[in-house]
Design a protein that fits this description.
The complex is a heterodimer of chains A (257) and B (525). By secondary structure, chain A is of the alpha/beta class. Chain A contains twelve helices and eight strands. In chain B, strands 1, 2, 3, 4, 5, 6, 7, 8 and 9 form a nine-stranded antiparallel beta sheet that branches.
Chain lengths: 257, 525
């Protein structure tokens, strides 16, 4: 099981859209996939037509309740969701109460390793104990970044944090919500990135289709797969799969005999 | 997430995905999604070894490639599937892993043959709730298999599989209840194997080299003997194509065993068929035994070769390469000759004539003296006489130990075994099983004694064929020498084991069993 954390300190960078589209493409390729919506705003949960609220989420974080009891199937084969809950806003406090709080999330995820090939964590913004948990649990961190000065600054903050905490988690960044008419966007993309992370080649354009995900309540890669955004996410997924490695689909699931 | 253990139902014929969606509640409630096609081919040996072990080997081919799966009768996976780009044939050539291990252990020298191919088309449907959220999945399955017998594809019953969506299990249960209850759709069998095999007019286990005859005690001897001989003729005919095509060595082996059994039945069950027929066909089946002999001998060597190599020190294992090449070359020539002989008019006439004789009512010629006696009586008498002959000869061999006497004893033991196999349905099974076991043990030792000697002699002959002035060939000759020494050591060991095995066969318990089963029948006549 590979754990991919889709993260950014900053909000509004296309994080949830990326998590949902990557999760959808992973499932479509035959990988048994779980999206865990860790963001109390519950956008991923909404996109996948599931009602938010995990009953007893506090017990869940404390390990007193099995994660598998609260899983919800999506509209897509191979794709499940661990829905968000508003109580996640207090997750830092709850994690803080547990023993060895920095690896709590990883412990919670371990029992799912037989069930899923990929877990995509849709992480809340900001940097906190939750984030540290995610960094420690993830096999790879995926950082959607808008090519602006401010975004690059927050990316550096994150990389400093990872370095400061001596974490080995590989970080992959990709430019998101890119407007090719903007000179600054093009300049940032052309510039050399921070050597502490890998900059993926795929660029996700700013596109109305991505915004329509809220209306359609489906991934772009489902309702507009041939659109520039749909194709970009497809290319992004292929690149992630190649870079992270170790994600081999079990072809058998789709055959009924 | 797909749960592989969904409930499956058989649908009425002519149901299609759109009709199914309508039955579930129309487009607001059920959406027809994408379809996917794949071909599924089941494989087994000609004698159904996998089926007999409760296993199904299948290769699924889709646009993504091939996938090999080994399942149990209840359709659960025995081991993880493996990718396979070529159609399976020899177990040793299957993709590595647990599937190969399991299949190879069961198949031994047999090749995998396609049993039936099913073309499948799966259409995914989603069942929605009032929020248009998917709460259950359906897989509609349309299948057809190609039948060589009818030349036309046979449609199988369409099926629907209901798959739960996590967190919405109650909705799935409602659908299952609806299908089973109100719609009265029957549950589909876990595996499509039985239905597809039946669709092409076959039956699993429809061939076995074992004789499983059901004879009636009071049946006239002539009728029972004809039944035995017709069964053996069927075995010969069924193995003919596989022998000619050299699919694997067991086709020829089974053909030869059926031929030997035929000759044995003709000569051992005396005075039942007209003498003229017995003499004629003993001779003609003798010809079949002869023409099939050389290829079988070479088959045995080729099958034994891995064991031969293993018996040599590792440094010498490759010294047998030239022998293997020689065997393969000779086998090719002999197989071509065998193919011609088995395709000849002589062969065709033999089988046709023999079938006409066996199916004629009454049989042509003067009936044998015992033709109308109850078979039970004739069988018991023959078995008892042959048993006494074996005991007498065996006791003589125990004191004498001459190889020729052991060879003769083996022939008699084989005749006794065949008689017991022909007529076992007439006697209590558990008792016959016990004495056959003791006889088989004895036969194995006698077989080793003779076969190892014959093999050693043949190997000496091969060695003589290699030019001694060629250093590479010299190594082969030396390796053959080591092999011959090893074979003769084993033959000696078989000789030493003989006395014990014969004593077991000639035990007081076994003697009493033979007497009770067969002598009593004779004396009551």
């Amino acid at each position: 099981m590979k754990i991919l954390g889709v993260y950014n300190i900053k909000g509004g960078v296309g994080k949830t859209a990326s998590a949902v589209n990557i999760g959808h493409l992973a499932a479509k390729s035959g990988l048994r996939t779980l999206i865990w919506d860790l963001d109390p705003q519950a956008a991923a949960t909404f996109y996948l037509r599931v009602k938010p609220k995990v009953k007893g989420s506090n017990k869940l974080l404390q390990g007193k309740r099995d994660l598998t009891d609260v899983l919800k199937g999506s509209d897509y084969p191979n794709l499940d969701l661990l829905p968000a809950d508003f109580s996640y806003r207090n997750m830092d406090l709850k994690l803080g109460e547990s023993k060895n709080p920095a690896v709590r999330l990883l412990k919670l995820l371990r029992p799912l390793s037989e069930r899923y090939d990929v877990v995509v964590l849709d992480c809340p913004p900001s940097i906190s104990l939750v984030s540290e948990n995610i960094f420690r649990a993830a096999d790879a961190l995926l950082l959607p970044t808008i090519p602006t000065t401010l975004s690059l600054r927050t990316m550096n903050q994150l990389l400093d944090f990872i370095e400061g905490h001596k974490l080995q988690t590989p970080v992959y960044t990709f430019y998101s919500m890119v407007d090719r008419r903007k000179k600054l966007h093009l300049e940032v993309i052309a510039s050399r990135g921070d050597p502490r992370c890998t900059v993926l080649e795929t660029v996700i354009p700013y596109a109305s289709e991505v915004e329509r995900m809220g209306l359609e309540r489906r991934p772009v890669t489902d309702f507009a797969r041939s659109s520039p955004a749909g194709r970009a996410y497809e290319a992004l997924w292929n690149e992630i799969r190649q870079q992270v490695g170790g994600m081999k689909p079990q072809r058998i699931a789709q055959y009924p005999l | 997430m797909n749960d592989p253990t969904g409930d499956s139902f058989l649908l009425p014929q002519r149901t299609d995905p759109e009709r199914l969606a309508k039955l579930v509640g129309g487009p607001q409630r059920c959406v027809v999604d994408e379809s996917l096609s794949f071909d599924l081919t089941f494989f087994d040996s000609f004698d159904w070894r996998l089926h007999a072990a409760g296993l199904r080997l299948m290769r699924l081919v889709s646009s993504e490639g091939g996938l090999l799966r080994l399942k149990r009768e209840d359709a659960t996976e025995v081991v993880d599937p493996v990718e396979s780009d070529v159609e399976p044939a020899w177990p040793a050539q299957l993709p590595g892993g647990l599937i190969r291990e399991q299949v190879a252990a069961l198949l031994e020298m047999r090749v995998l043959l396609p049993v039936v191919s099913v073309h499948c088309r799966v259409t995914e449907l989603r069942v929605l709730n009032e929020d248009a959220k998917t709460v259950a999945r359906l897989q509609f399955l349309a299948m057809q298999c190609d039948s060589a017998a009818t030349q036309e594809p046979r449609m199988l019953w369409p099926r629907v599989r209901v798959l739960p969506v996590l967190g919405y299990e109650s909705e799935c249960q409602c659908l299952v209840d609806h299908f089973a209850g109100e719609m009265e759709w029957p549950y589909a069998p876990a595996c499509v194997f039985d239905e597809s095999v039946a669709a092409i007019g076959r039956e699993p286990g429809d061939y076995s080299s074992k004789l499983t005859l059901k004879l009636k005690h009071q049946q006239h001897a002539v009728g029972a003997l004809r039944k035995i001989l017709l069964t053996l003729l069927g075995t010969i005919e069924r193995n003919l194509a596989g022998t000619r095509a050299n699919l694997d060595s067991e086709f020829l082996h089974d053909l030869r065993v059926a031929t030997r059994r035929t000759r044995s039945a003709l000569s051992q069950v005396k005075q039942v068929l007209p003498d003229s027929i017995v003499e004629d066909y003993k001779q003609r089946f003798g010809w079949l035994g002869q023409v099939t002999g050389p290829t079988r001998d070479l088959d045995v060597f080729l099958l034994e070769l891995p064991r031969y190599r293993a018996s040599l020190p590792a440094a010498m294992a490759h010294d047998l390469d030239a022998l293997e090449a020689h065997l393969l070359g000779t086998h090719k020539t002999e197989q071509a000759r065998l193919k011609r002989k088995l395709g000849s008019a002589e062969m065709r006439t033999l089988l046709d004539d023999w079938r006409a004789v066996l199916e004629a009512d009454p049989p042509p010629g003067d009936p044998g003296l015992y033709a109308d006696l109850p078979i039970e009586l004739v069988a018991a008498r023959r078995i008892w006489r042959m048993y006494r002959k074996v005991i007498k000869a065996g006791r003589a061999v125990t004191t004498d130990g001459a190889p020729e006497a052991m060879h003769e004893l083996r022939k008699d033991c084989k005749k006794l075994r065949y008689l017991l196999e022909f007529f076992r349905s007439l006697f209590p099974d558990s008792h016959v099983k016990k004495i056959v076991r003791a006889l088989k043990n004895l036969l194995d030792i006698l077989g080793d004694f003779q076969d190892l000697e014959v093999q050693a002699d043949e190997l000496r002959g091969f060695a003589a064929a290699f030019a001694p002035d060629d250093p590479a060939r010299l190594r082969t000759v030396m390796a053959i020498g080591a092999l011959v020494a090893d074979l003769l050591r084993h033959q000696q060991a078989a000789h030493e084991r003989f006395a014990g095995a014969f004593a077991d066969f000639d035990s007081a318990g076994n003697r009493a069993e033979f007497k009770r089963l067969f002598k009593a029948e004779e004396s009551s006549s």
